Amino acid sequence: MTVTIWHNPACGTSRNTLGLIRNSGEEPVVVEYLRTPPTRGELAEAIRAVGLSVREALRRKGTPYDDLGLDNLTLSDDALLDAMLAHPILINRPFVFTERGVRLCRPSELVLDLLPPQRGAFTKKDGEPVTDANGRRVTRGEAA
Q: Which residues are tagged catalytic?
């Protein structure tokens, strides 16, 4: 299986998603989208594929969202895409692409729907268990 992740190594959710991909036995193509941003077409297609509006794919926290006035509801999708391409930090992450589909993996567990079974336990960096020793999803409050 080919797995590609638009990854930001400074983002905990992105790091957890990457860990879950690797825990499934897959070694993904890692695209650090802040260094190598997607093209306009790739970005628009990824947003469409996950079923979001362009506005829903914007990241606000830790970005120039407010400084750029992106809360202006009259801005077109083209204007929002222009902002995301000029400032890739505005692209919400991580996007993951496989032959099973595309997801914006927030929370990181959403990636499990795109992957082969997990090979064992996985715990997020904050200590929250995601899968148990048998690779099965752990429900909240259940120990790994």
A: 11
